[in-house]
Fold each of these.
Amino acid sequence: MSRLRFGIWALVHGSRAALQDPDEPYDASWERNKKLVLEAEALGYDSVLVAQHTINPHDESLNQLEAWTASAALAALTPRIEIISAIKPFLYHPVVLAKMAMQIEEISRGRFAINLVNAWNRPELEKAGIPFLEHDERYAYGREWIAVVEPLLRGERVTFKGRYFDLHDYQLRPADGFRTRPQIYVGGESEPAKDLVAAHGDVWFINGQPLADVERLIQDVAARPRQAAPLRFGLSAFVVARETDEEAHAVHEHLSELAKKDAPIRAVQKANTDPKVVMMQTMAKTPRVGSNGGTAAGLVGSYATVAERILAFHHAGIELFMLQFQPFEAEMHRFATKIMPRVKEMQQGPKMKAAG
Ligand SMILES: Cc1cc2nc3c(=O)[nH]c(=O)nc-3n(C[C@H](O)[C@H](O)[C@H](O)COP(=O)(O)O)c2cc1C
C-alpha cells in the first residue's frame, strides 16, 4: 500500500468549522495562506489542497483566495510539499488549464496536481453568465474536458472532436521534465463522479464519513472499469484531538455551538446548491463540523483514538488524509507534534526490548 500522507486544506475561504470564532478571526488572505503552507511544510505535512471558488460559497461578501495564482506562488516558495489545485471545468478551456498546470508543474519541479470538481454552487457560474448544466450533464462535460486535458499534460499532440471541444493537432511545450504528468485527483461522490475517477483519475477524494461507508465506497469504485494503474484514495476530515476523549468531545461541542451562528449563511448556501449533489446528501446524514464531511469521519478524540482511527482508514485503503482544524494554525501544530509521531510509531509496531 502507498505511504500514508497528511495534507491540509488551504484557508481559501477562512475558517472551516465556524465563521464567527473569536479564536480565529475571518482571514482568507494570501499572507495568511502563504505562512500557513510554509509552516505546514516545515511541520512535515505532505500536501496542500487549494480549493477553487471564484466567489465565496458561504457568503459572497467575504474574501476568497484565488486558487491558481496562489498555487503558482506557493510552488515557487516551497521546496517539498505537493500542491493540489481544484478546478471546475466550466471556468477554463482545457488547453488553457493544461498549460497553466504544466507551468506550475515546472515551477514546483514535479509537485503539482489538479483536483477535478464538477460544481455545486449555482450563482458562481450563473451570475457569470455561464450555464449551470444539470448534474449528470456537468459530469459529461467534465469527462470530455479531462479526456482532452490528460493527454495534453502528457505532452501528446491532441486532435479531439467531441460534443463540447474540438481540438486539432494541439501540443504543449515544454513537456513535463519531472514525471509523466501532474497527478489527477477527483472530488465528487455521485455515480458519474465514480465512473469519471475510475476512468481518468489517479486519486479519488472521499468526503469525511464513517469507516464502514468509506470501505464500501472504496470497494465500489476500485471495481469499476479502468485501464491505468490501481486507483488510490484520499479522505477529507476535520480533526479535534486532545489528551482525553472527553476533552476532545467538549471542544467539538464548542465548535458545533459556534457553527450554529452561521445558520443564516448556511441557509443561503443550501438554497444556492444543486439538490442533486450527492456530497451534500452525504454530509446531511451525520451531524458534523467542517466542510466536505468534516468530523463525520470520526477523527475526534484523544491522541490515541485519533491515531488508531487514522490507521483503520489507512488499512481500508486511504493513502492521503486531507485535514481541517480550528483554530487552524494551532491545531495543525498539535496534530503534527502529537499525532503524526504516534501514527508512525504504531505503524512500526511494538518496540523490541533491548537485549541484555
Ligand atoms: C476533497 C474535495 C474537494 C473539493 N473541492 C471543491 C472545490 O474546490 N470547489 C468546488 O466547487 N467543489 C469542490 N468539491 C465539491 C465537488 O464539486 C462536489 O463533490 C461535486 O460538485 C458534487 O458532485 P457529486 O454529486 O458527485 O458529489 C470538493 C469535493 C471533495 C470531495
Amino acid sequence: MDVMAAAARIEAQGRRVVHMEVGQPAAPAPATAIAAAQAALAGGRIGYTETLGIASLRARIARHYSETYDLALDPARVVVTTGSSGGFVLAFLALFEPGERVALANPGYPPYRHILSALGCEPVLIETTAETRWALSAKALLAAHAQKPLAGVVIASPANPTGTMMEADAFSRLISVAEAEGIRVISDEIYHGLDYAFVAETAANISERALVINSFSKYFCMTGWRVGWMVVPDGLVRAVERLQGNLAISVPLLSQVAAQAAFDSRAEMEAVKHGYEANRRILLDGLPKAGLDRFLPVDGAFYLYADISRFSGDSLDFAKRMLEEAGVAATPGIDFDPVNGHNFLRFCYAGSAAEMREAVERIGDWLKRR
Ligand SMILES: Cc1ncc(COP(=O)(O)O)c(C=O)c1O
C-alpha cells in the first residue's frame, strides 16, 4: 500500500509509472459476462438468491470440472462465494476451531494467515526453498505436525507471490500424506488456467475430502465482481450453507449471472492468457540482461518473484527507490514473507507487452546508474 501511495504521488506530479505492483488483470471482464449483467439489469428485480448460489451457475461450474479436469462433479458440492476471499472465511469457520493450527507455505498470500488469526486459529508458517520448488512438501508438513498437531493446511499451485507450481506427484503426495494424518486440505486454485510450464491439477481429483477454493477474479478478469466458488466435501455442504446464510445471505445475483456467462468467453480469456505468456517471455529474457537475474521458477499466475539481495537487504526501500528513480512499481517481499521477504520483490506481469518492455528498459538503466 505504501508503494501504491508513493506511485500515486509520483503520477500526480505528472511523471509516468509502470505499474507491476497490483495483482490483478488489466483486461476487463469477458464480453459475455458484461452482456449478461446488462440484460439482467434491464430485466428488473435483483433479489437475494439461494444461499449456495443459483442452480444454473452451480451446474455450469460442475460442468467446468468435467471439461477441464475430466472430473464428474455433483453440482450439490459447489458453493458460490463472494470471491475466493469469502470462501476462505467459510472454509476456515466450517473446518477449524479456535486454537487449532493450520499450516501455510512461506512466502504466501497474507490473508490466509490474517483470516486464520482473526478467527482465533494459529497460522503455522512453513519455510519453502528451491529444493521443493518453493512449495510446501509432505516432509515439511509432517515435521510441523510432529512438533504440535496440525488441523489443516492451505496449498496453492500456482501460488502468490512466487508464481511457482507444484509438480503433479508432489501435489498429490502432499494431499494424501496430510489426509492420512487427519489434516484437512484447503486448495486455493484461484490461478488455475494461468499455467505456462505445466497444467495444474485440481485437489478435487485427488480427494473428495479436500476443500477446493476458486474464483472468477483472475483467469476470467472479474476481480471487482466479487464472485468465486468452492467445491466442498459432501458432509460439509450444509454447514457452509448455514454459515453463508447468516454471514452474507447470498452472493450478488448480478455477479452470479455474469460469472455463468463468463464460461462462454473461453477464446477471449485464452487470448488474455497468451498476452501474459508473451509478457512472461519478455521478463524472462529481459530482466537478467537488465541485472535482475535471480528469480524463482516462473510457472504460473502472473507473478515473478525476484531475489534482489545482490542489491539490497531492504525490499521496501529498494521498491521505493525503484519507483522514485526508475518509475517502476513492484511489491516488496516483506508483504508476503516475514522471514526472507526483505530480499525479494514481486512483479505482476498482467499489464501490456509495451509496459513490460518499458519496465525492463527502465530497470536496466536504473541498475546501471546506481
Ligand atoms: C492466492 C490468492 N488467493 C485468493 C485471492 C483473493 O481473490 P478473490 O477474493 O478476488 O477471489 C488472491 C488475490 O489476489 C490471491 O492472490
